[in-house]
Amino acid sequence: MSQARTVVVLAAGEGKRMKSALPKVLHPLLGRTLLGHVLAAAAPAAADRTVVVVGFGADQATAHLAEIAPQATAVLQAEQRGTGHAVRVALAAVPEPTGTVVVLNGDVPLLRSRTVTALVEAHEAGGAAATVLTAQVPDPTGLGRVVRAPGGGVERIVEHRDATAEELAIREINAGIYAFDAALLRAALGKLSTDNDQGEEYLTDVFGLLGAAGHPIAAHLATDVTETLGCNDRSEFAALRALLRDRVNREWMLSGVTILDPATTWIDVTVRLERDAVVDQNTQLRGATVVGAEAVVGPDCTLIDTTIGAGATVLRSHTEEAVIGEGATVGPFSYLRPGTRMEERAKVGAFVETKNATLGAGAKVPHLSYAGDATIGPKANVGAGTIFANYDGVNKHHTEVGEAAFVGSNSVLVAPVRIGAGAFTAAGSAVAQDVPPGALAITRAPQHNSAGWTPRKRPGTTYADAAARAGARGETSHRESAGGAGGPAGDTAGA
Ligand code: UD1
Ligand code: CA
Question: What is the spatial distance between Cα 489 and Cα 320, in angstroms, rounded to a whole number?
Fold first, then answer.
């Protein structure tokens, strides 16, 4: 880097057309707020200092900034008196900047960092006093127009509402991204008037002032117009979200990820996928999610801050802050909540909810279960309908299921409790005491069969008829079960 650089992001406006309590720049778009996107685009321009001008919802904006860019300084523009005023307030709040000042509107989320870098480098290399990012657009309504100088440079920028009929015909617009010589910018900001349709200090007037004083002004034409699109209401948000989705999906496909239905696949810009991962339709990958090589996700999944190992599969499920190990399988229709950790080849099947639960390698929770605050050992099998009763109404308690333990179907494990390695619990048991390794726990009431009950109590019904026919065929009992011992019958063997 040849010169000192200061980045100023303008984010004080309310964004009236959003009709929202939340400042516009804090609305999210595929993994970052608008402000987050703009800061990410500016980051590689390697600023020595980054200033964000906040105003509407300043407390929220400042708190968000502290989270996403703690090295940046928030500066309050108490009244929004225009973009020029905003930059003036920003520069007054920091030590006198030298070198280049890069100014970015806070509502241009599709801007690419390489475009910002190219703009700044062209500005510095060409020795311009000011350089503006421009684009040729089919419909420039509402935007500032770039009035070219006869020699090809820029004469000035005129706002839509202040433009003449002739100027309104110009299709080259101001994208709201600029590089300035710091000293010349500061001097020009001191001369801004409010003599315009909105009675505001326009940053764009700096161009006319510097041009009139004979300083060279440059324009940097964006090759991809979508990068310059602003975002003013929720309908424009939706349009930009779809554009960003397409861009993100295309980049992943070109880097070796299969996306079966890009139109219904929404991948946050913060997500990472490895080679030969497959994403099936109607799937959202959000936040810090990482999808390993050859993993298959979808259809119909929402994964938030989830790490998926190589070769794992997740089908029609919702996961949050979960770690899914290599070759593990999840779904369909399961819900992995924060703190779920599945080691390699572990299985969570259908209609299972987990929270703060570790499944060891090859452990299985195949059907209709809740596992909360649990450590499930490697190769353990948790039968259908098992509930880890972790909450006593006041506190949460932990349950440990040992290696290769076998929890019979419809068991309730009342925490805190430990099921030893290789131990069994009989189907339908409520287990509130530790089970030693290798033992069988059974808490069912003994079964009593009342012979001939149906013909006595339900004579003349289809039930009684069926029982009579079975009797005629000589059927008596399917199985001896008096005494209720048996085993953990009804297990599902982790199918
Ligand atoms: C601005 C440009 C216009 C350009 C357009 C590109 C001016 C005068 N006009 O118009 O030429 O085509 O961007 O999108 O600059 N802001 C503040 N403080 C203020 C006013 C605005 O921080 O007092 C912030 C807003 O939050 C926003 C950005 O500056 O992030 C741009 O303001 P906005 O009102 O959206 O300007 P436009 O009318 O879109
Ligand atoms: Ca705008």
Answer: 34
How would CATH label the architecture of 5-228?
Alpha-Beta Complex (3.90)
Max CA distance (Å), the chain:
112
Ligand nearest to the CA of 10: 1
Contact yes or no for 411/386 (Cβ under 8 A): yes
Q: Which residues of 67-84 are buried (b: 16+ CB within 10 A; e: fewer)?
A: eebeebbbbebeebbbbb
Express each pLDDT in 129-160 by its tens digit. 999 999 999 999 999 999 999 888 899 999 99
- State the fold for domain 272-441: UDP N-Acetylglucosamine Acyltransferase; domain 1 (2.160.10)
- This prediction's pTM: 0.92
**Residues whose CB is less than 8 angstroms from the CB of residue 31 and which lie 6 or more positions away in sequence, other chains included:** 268, 269, 270, 271, 286, 287
Average pLDDT rounded to a whole number, residues 458-468: 97
Q: Where are the domains of the chain?
A: 5-228, 272-441
Tell me which of 83, 87, 158 to substitute to probe ligand 1's pocket, judged by most ligand atoms within 8 Å of the beta carbon.
83
Q: Cα(236) to centroid of ligand 2, in Å?
A: 11
Give residue 485's pLDDT band: very low, low, confident or very high (50, 70, 90): very low
Quick: pLDDT tens for 54-77: 999 999 999 999 999 999 999 999
478 tagged catalytic: no
Q: Token pair 């999840």 is at which residue? A: 330
Q: Which residues contact 157 (CB under 8 A, 6 or more apart)?
A: 132, 144, 145, 146, 147, 174, 204, 205, 207, 208
Q: What is the pLDDT of residues 76-126, one digit of tens each?
A: 999 999 999 999 999 999 998 899 999 999 999 999 999 999 999 999 999
